[in-house]
Design brief:
2 strands; 1 helix
Length: 74
């Protein structure tokens, strides 16, 4: 690895990888995977919330009958 290679940890702190020993590197890897899982979970929760906000039930049924407007399918 090139000297000076750096990554950012979950707290926004820049970590200089070549300075880490084996135990620190393993710990950093575990933390990185935990952050990734948390981010992926957040993305799924946000997508579900977006879908809830845009469900057919959320449409204004007084205006959906107008031409060119959104209609629910379900």
């Amino acid at each position: 690895m090139e000297s000076g290679a750096a990554v950012i940890d979950g707290d926004g702190v820049v970590i200089d990888l070549p300075t880490l020993d084996a135990d620190q590197t393993l710990g950093f890897t575990n933390t990185a995977f935990a952050l990734q899982r948390r981010a992926e979970s957040n993305q799924l929760q946000i997508a579900a919330h977006w879908a809830d906000l845009h469900s057919g039930d959320a449409l204004d049924h007084n205006t959906t009958a107008l031409p060119g407007r959104e209609r629910s399918r379900g």
